[in-house]
Structures are given as C-alpha cells and as structure tokens.
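User: Here's a chain of 315 residues. Predict its fold as tokens.
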Amino acid sequence: MVTIIDGKPKYRHPEKRNRPDTPVLRKPDWIRVKAPTSRGFAETQEIVNSKGLVTVCQEAGCPNIGECWTKKHATMMILGEVCTRACSFCNVSTGKPSPVDPSEPERVAEAVREMGLEHVVITSVDRDDLEDGGAMHFVSVIEEIRKASPGTTIEILTPDFLRKDGWENRVIDARPDVFNHNLETVPRLYLSIRPGARYYHSIRLLERVKLRDPNQFTKSGLMVGLGETKEEVMQVMDDMRSAGIDFLTIGQYLQPTRKHAAVERFVHPEEFAAYEEIARAKGFLMVSASPLTRSSYHAGEDFQKLRAARLAANG
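Assistant: Prediction complete.
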C-alpha cells in the first residue's frame, strides 16, 4: 500500500517493496464475508475515531470486523500503529515508531467504558526500540481500564518481549484475566514467516506466566495454510500443553498483499474440526478452530466458556 505525503510516496511496508509478487489463490466460498454496513459498526467506528485509537481490526485487515464491530467488540492496539518488525504475514505498518503517548491508557479505558464492554482485548505492535518493550504501557492500560470499568475482564495479546530482561513479569503481575501471545506458525517456518521472533522464547514466555501466576489463563494462536504439515501442528499443540497453555485458536492465514507470504492452500472446515478434536483430546480447556478464527474473535463468549471449563475440570 502506498500513500502520497507532501508529494512523496510513503510505503506501508517499505521492507517488502522490492520483493517479488507472490501468487494469490482464489478464496473458497467458506472464507468470504460481507462488507460491514450496520449501525452498530458505525457507532463503534465513531467511538474509536473520537478517542484517536488504533485497532488491530483495521490495521491487520481482519475479515471479522463487520461482525465484531456490529456487536461493539473492538480489539485495541496500543503503543502506536507502526511495528519495529517485519513479519511476512502481517499487514501492520513497519518502520520507526513515534514516541509512546502517555494519554493512551486513559483514552482506551474511556472507550471501553463507553462501549460497555464486558470483555476487552488489548494488543500492540512490537516495540523493540523501548527498553521494556512496552511492558509498563500494558500495565498502565490494564490499571486504567480497571478504574474506568471495574466489571470488564481484560485479555491482553502481547509481543514476545524478546531480550527485554524480565520486563514481562510486570505485565504478568498486573494480573490480566487472559495472557495471550501467539506462536503464529510451526518452528520450521519461523525464518520466513516470523523472522524477528524465536519459537522457544515464545513458548517460554507463556510457560513463565503459568509459573508466576498459575491462576492466570494463557492463550496462543496458530495460522494454517502456510505450508505446515498436520504432524507439525500436532507437535506445536504438545509444546503448548507442556507450557500449560489453556486456550488454543487456529485460523486460516489470509494474504494481505502480493508482497506478503503466499497462501499455500485454503484449509477445509472439516480439517479445522479435526484439529479442534485433537486439541481437546490433548487437554486444552478451550479450543477455537475455524477458517475465520482470529485471536480476539468471539473472545468474550469464549472467555466465559474457558472459565466454565476450568470450574468443571476442578470439580
């Protein structure tokens, strides 16, 4: 994507500009969604815009934005809209981020209160430029939401805090209701799909949450359709369970542009159903697996199911 500013082109993904185009597969019927037109969508958009907020729904081009925003479910993206990494699957802008806005936590909390959210998901760009990776900003957002909307349960979807010397512990100690960090893909594909991350570091981050606060729910997600095998996905499930992860999401990877990683294939809904059955057999408390599943899709309803599953498991 190119925007002209002061007569000069500004590229959304400058690091991808010179890459060769990748092929684009035609989407099957089960992956198609309608354009959003509802009144609820417009109301959510107005609240987001009036508070000067960024949502991952918009930045990542989520296919579920129409359904979620109609229900006034928006996933807030904090720490700006420019990421310091260049994952080949992601549509968020890459570049040098602006300084952290200290007023953002309060504005996010006001939006949560105005929307009347029972459950909110907070995510962010990667901020490798910050000493703490943005950890204390996450803490501030959690604290402000709890002041403005005490009854709202809070789910965070964090970066990996790679090489941030334990700052993630401050986020864990803020006690969000759900601590989510996505593994995204199988280890073999990390170099091409998620080159700035390290698979086993991400596993250890989620394991550290459980060791530090056993009552905190942990969650992680995978994309499929990137060339992974069923056996590799099952191995990731085992790694997740070894780290004590409670909730697994699996969704279809969708290619944002021809400069991004190509979709190798569209996984059939029956395969997603099989993945869900396997994951439940491996001991996950909650599994959401479908072509349109995303980390925050139906997050509020799924959190209630997750909590009920733990109560049932504990007798």
